[in-house]
Amino acid sequence: MSCPYYQDYTRECIQSFPKVMSHTSFSVCESEKYVNCYAYFALQAGFQCKYQDYCVNDLTSNIPIIARLFIENDVAMQVFKDSIQKYCSSKENHVYCACYKLHEMGIKPPVELLPDGSKFRLRDIILRKKIVLE
């Protein structure tokens, strides 16, 4: 089974999230692992915060290269998926997102800021430890 956004060997998700090209391999698209792809998860929700593209691009561009190798561990993926579901892809709750509020004030949110206002530590992801939210 493969991702529904991977049709005729093209990734339609790239139209919404261009940076996904450098972070998700075609092997993910061609397997059942596609359900763990952040782009797939965000697109399936049906609603996108107006800053979601900016946040995704900022996260993928400003995370240290070494962290990118570890960001797809189960713990990190669950933290990001929960945030996407609760805030980024919720028509009702996206306005309560800490990043959304900063964007609305014209302030660029730090890359480690999660929608609930807590911060994740990149060293936890890199070292594959339990993610500690501050």
Keywords:
globular; 3% strand; mainly alpha; 134 residues; two-stranded antiparallel sheet; disordered C terminus
What would you note in describing this structure?
- It is built from 8 helices and 2 strands.
- With 134 residues, the chain is mostly helical.
- It has a two-stranded antiparallel ribbon.
- It has a domain at 41-126.
- Helix 3 (38-45) packs parallel to helix 6.
- The longest helix is centred in the middle third of the chain and has 15 residues, at 74-88.
- It is globular.
- The model is unreliable at 130-134 (pLDDT under 50).
- A hairpin with a 2-residue loop joins strand 1 and strand 2.
- It has helices at 13-16, 26-29, 38-45, 52-62, 65-68, 74-88, 98-104, 122-126, and strands at residues 6-7, 10-11.
Total strand segments: 2
The fraction of residues in strands falls at under 5%
Give the biggest beta sheet. 2 strands, antiparallel
In sequence order, what are the helices and strands, one letter per element? EEHHHHHHHH
Write the layout of secondary structure elements.
Layout: E1 6-7, E2 10-11, H1 13-16, H2 26-29, H3 38-45, H4 52-62, H5 65-68, H6 74-88, H7 98-104, H8 122-126
Antiparallel strand pairs: 1-2
Kindly summarize this structure in a few lines.
The chain has 134 residues and is mostly helical.
